[in-house]
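Lab manual, section 2.4: Encoding a predicted structure.

Procedure: take the sequence of the chain (342 residues), apply the prediction step described in section 2.3, and record the output as structure tokens. A sample record is shown.
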Amino acid sequence: MFAAVGIVLGLFLEVRRPDVLAAGALLLIAIALTIRSSASTGSMFLAATLAALAGMGAVNVALPPLARAWFPHAIARVTAVYAAVIALSSALPPIVSSLLADAGWRTALLPWAAVALVGACPLLLIVLRGRGGWSTHVAPEHAPLPRGDQRAMVRHALRIGVVFGMSAGNAFALFVWLPTLAHQALGLDDRAAAVLLAVYSAMALPVAVLTPWLVSRVRRPGIVGTVGTLCLCLGGIVLPLVPPPLAIPAAIVAGAGQCLYPLCLIVIARAPASLGPATALSSLGQGIGYLVGALVAVVMTGMIASTGSWTVTMLATAALTACGYPAMLALIRGHRDEHAGS
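Recorded output:
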């Protein structure tokens, strides 16, 4: 659903107000989660779930353009903050839901509708202040691009999508399969497998904070992407091979590869005007990225089902990830050249 929303927004809808998109998407999430908590039929529950996911995908699309519009001189810091919040938010819902488990799943959904509504309120105020034109806080996106620039934007979005997908695909697969891998390949018990997954998940926070800062500071930001790609490949390969005492260091290495996600966010937020509206670049890049990520996860699932070998599966996943390395180099090279010339 995230992939579909991103591609549709990027190719078919001309979104010139990312603040309006974000506010509307958050309202959609709040309404959909409320309906979902009270759904009386399976079709109503499914429709509300799809609507909520569509809203989440749209908010993801709107965030990098908003960072560029509202904080043009602090993009790295703002990207680090919201990437860190995204990383933290992946751990918070299971904790809150477990505390509300006795009240039933319907009640456990309602706090998240309230969170979406609270998030929409300041954006609605900004939108209302700018009705009839642009708010003083949001610069308008420029006129439609010439055909040649449109092709450049699509190429840049494809590169973003491939790199984004490298990170997302490995993250999707390991979130699902790491406990099973820990049981079958390493012989760990349930508690140790849970700790291993927690360590991998926790790595999203430090890399979310450090990656934007490093990309904006180092002379060769391609080093950051190269290290991230190596961590994805090497961490995945060694996970089923290491002795149990080294499982946590292997998970840390694999988790460090999640730096490619904030790397893509800051490239989107700092993209030059010649590549068109930031919302279009963000939506198309993230849409392609989620699609690539889903394919990587499907390939990994198919490999383990067909071979039964975690070593073969992780080697194949690493090889697939390595195929995206040239796209990462091209993406970083373009990002560096644009800013060197500005």
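Check your result against the sample. Residues 131-143 have pLDDT under 50 and may be disordered.
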